[in-house]
Amino acid sequence: MAGMGKMGRSRILVVGYNAFDVIVPVSEFPAPDEKAEVSRVITCGGGPGATAAVALARLGAEVKLITPLTDDVPGRLQRDELLAAGVDLSHCPTVVGLQSPKAIILVDEARGQRTIFWSRGDVPNLESGYAAPELLDEVDLLYTDGHEAEVSIRLARCARERGVPVVLDAGSVRVGSGELVGCCTDVVSSRGFAPDLTGCAAPLDALRALRDMGPERVAMTFGGEGVLGLENDQPLPVPAFAVPIKDTTGAGDAFHAGYAFALAHGLEFRSCLDWGSAVAGLKCRDWGGRLGLPDLPEVQSLLENGERNSLDGLWSRVIDSES
After folding, report:
1. pTM score > 0.85 for this model?
2. Most distant pair of Cα atoms in the chain: their distance
3. In a domain, 296, yes or no
4. By residue range, what is the domain housing residue 108?
5. Is residue 4 in a domain?
């Protein structure tokens, strides 16, 4: 395993959101009251936490997921897909008679960009009883996407007391986000999360403010430009891999999964950012959040042989922050 030696299989507990995705690639949008035929419609599971769980399992981790599941048709399809991927669902409650979360994702085929319409359904958040400390026994890493804030905060506090790393996929600011950030060891922000939470518009200022809330390591992703980390209070820009892009849906989820996988194996910060970049880049070769997720040899190969995009975009963000 490149950069990981002969370490054993990592054990990761994931807390987060799952959804049923309908992905529609479009070449152009019709005018109002008109129809447009599309080449395909793809359906698959989605949601940050659940997709990260699938990505981690595909890389070879032993993964347990905590998320509410439903008994409607999309919910049953999600369960089957997660089980087929090797994700342990023994701690996932099934809520009866409720509508599962769903998303409609329109993908601009020419630009590889997407527009998302989503609904949480009517599934309630998990109760605090699902944050049993014994869930962390023999766990190498706790991963949360911030959607189940109460359970995530309770587990994160316990994990940190035990010396277990806690990774937060910081996509959007939600109720409890500030408290959760302070409980995590590693917070990887979208380009909007850290500025929204801290009130600092400049990326480096936002990362420094985020770090001062309690995490040991912080970073911010910028899509095809790459990721900007903060190491010893200095910028650490890591360019994205130059890979063919079909669909960016789930790329952030894949990045966080790759980062967490590397961290669970004890790699240093820069290597974790590289692993996140590699998993995210490979995911973009196919539709939806999961079809393109790579296995371990594919990630190894890209890390060893892959070309990178220019650093210019990331350095311009650093310069703007310090000007």
Report:
1. yes
2. 60
3. yes
4. 11-29+39-322
5. no
